Structure formats: structure tokens, C-alpha cells
Amino acid sequence: MRILITNDDGINAPGLRTLAAIATEIAGPGGEVWTVAPAFEQSGVGHCISYANPTMISELGPRRWAAEGSPADCVLAGFHDILPGRPDLVLSGINRGNNAGENVMYSGTIGGAMEAALQGVKAIALSQFLGPRNYEAEDPFEAAAVHGARVIQHLLDHAPWGEEDSYRLFYNVNFPPIPASDVKDILVARQGRRKTAGFVMEGQVSPTGRRFLWVRGSEQSVDTGPGTDVTANLEGHISVTPMRADLTAHDALAALEAAL
Predict the structure, then answer these.
(1) What is the pLDDT of residues 46-96, one digit of tens each?
(2) Beta strands of the chain (E only): which ranges?
(3) Cα–Cα distance between 93 and 203 in angstroms, integer?
(4) Which residue, of 3, 120, 125, 167, is most buried by count of CB atoms within 10 Å of its CB?
(5) CA–CA separation, 154 vs 128, rounded Å?
(6) Residue spans per domain, the chain
(7) Bridge partners of 212?
(8) DSSP H or E stretch at residue 144
(9) Are 56 and 68 in contact (CB under 8 A)?
């Protein structure tokens, strides 16, 4: 199996090292693991592509490349320039922090997996929820490291991947913010929504008198209701959410037709 891995935390992020180990296990002795990841952190860029600017790429080692672009750029670079052929699977992550709830809409980790799905290749995004029980642990990614290969293999063996002529499914996996030994079973969950302020802008004046705005997030440990990804993670479960690049509000189509 040929696997392409990427992330949005950057080529030197510890979560990417964890993912490389997991991908090597999944690929097997005769497999290949290729890394194409952003040269610098790209958190929050979503499914952005560098349409108006070129993307510089650098070979850092065997099957290891850095791109000055977004995770989606990295996937495109891997597919169309770097790899000798199309991969069988794209893994994006392991993100430092959760990509559950409304975070999905901003996540470059999700963006990388989404681009792979749009290109017709199986893709899984993986993120490690952080909290009081693992934030300062020796290995904050322990839950993902211990359980990641098992979850991915389950999805490869049993999950539906959609039809070729439609928006292909991809999967969003979030590991709970607890030690690996306390992780419960896998729960299939829908995307939740934290009823908090979400992201806000906060102003600051520099020593030179210039004004800058910083994006600040809100409380992450907020229950989003039964059956949702955030709540599943807070209760100690690994959440798996099927997704696709289709923003149509299908439940509103009939009502809109009637109204118009």
C-alpha cells in the first residue's frame, strides 16, 4: 500500500511523527509512506489552495517533502508532482488539538483530507483532543499513537467510501483527551456545535505603536449533545464522523422549492 501523509501543524510537528509511525504499520513491509507537509504551520487555513501564487517544494529526505503552502496544496503536490503514482490512502494529521464541532470548518487537517477525497482517493483526518489529563503529558499524542492504526484499519476494512461519480466520503477521527489506557470504544458521531462565542478577534498595540489583531478561540470542553463528536470525545470515546465536500443543505431543499 502507498500512503501519503500530510498535516497543518507543519513538517516538524510531533503529531506528524506519530502519524508516520502509524502509516508505516498500515502500509506493511512492502508498502510506501510518503510525507508532503507544510514547511510552516498552516492551522486554520481550511481547504485553502494557493491558486494565485506558486508553491515552492523542497526534498528533505527519502519520500519526505516540505511545501510552502496549505495541506490541500501538499496533497495536490503529492498527487501531481512528487509521488511516482497515486496513493491508495491519504492520512492528514495528527492534529494538535481537536477538529470536532465547528473547528471542522476552519481546519487545514480536514482540508487536506477533503482534497484527497475530491481527487478520488480514500482519506482520513486524525486529531488529538487536548485537555487537563493529557495536555502536559510526556506524550500528548499517546491515545492516537496507541489506537490510531486500529481505527484506520477498521475504516479501510469495513467503512463505506461512496460512489465514484459523487462527492466521495472521507472520515474525521478525533481521539479523546485522556491516557491511552482509559480510551473507550469507537463511536460514530455527527459533527457537533459548541454554543459559545467561537473564534473572536482581540486587539493589541505593539511597542512601535502599531495595532494588531489576534484570533482567539473559545472553551473547547463544551458538551454538544448526545451523538456528537465533541461529547463523545469528552466522554472518553474515539469519534468517527463521515464527511464529504458537499455543503448543500439537503434538508432545506424541499422547503425552499415550496417557498419559491
Answers:
(1) 999 999 999 999 999 999 999 999 999 999 999 999 999 999 999 999 999
(2) 2-6, 32-38, 57-61, 64-67, 89-96, 122-128, 170-175, 186-188, 200-205, 211-216, 238-243
(3) 30
(4) 125
(5) 18
(6) 2-193+222-259
(7) 204
(8) helix 142-158
(9) yes
Neighbour tally for 46: CB within 10 Å: 18
Residue position matching grid coordinates 465514484: 164
Three cell numbers written together for 126: 486524525
Neighbours of 3 (CB within 10 A): 24
Cell of 158: 469495513
Question: Coil, strand, or helix at residue 173?
Answer: strand
pLDDT digits (tens, 9 = 90+) for 148-173: 999 999 999 999 998 777 899 999 99
Q: Strand 89-96 relative to strand 186-188: parallel, antiparallel, unpaired?
A: unpaired
The topology (CATH level 3) of 2-193+222-259 is Stationary-phase Survival Protein Sure Homolog; Chain: A, (3.40.1210)
Please tell me whether 229 is known to bind a ligand: no
**Is 8 annotated as contributing to ligand binding?**
yes
H/E element holding 89? strand 89-96
Is the preceding omega at residue 3 within 30 degrees of 0, hence cis?
no
The strands making up 57-61's β-sheet, listed across from edge to edge, are: 57-61, 64-67, 32-38, 2-6, 89-96, 122-128, 170-175, 238-243, 186-188
The model carries a pTM of: 0.96
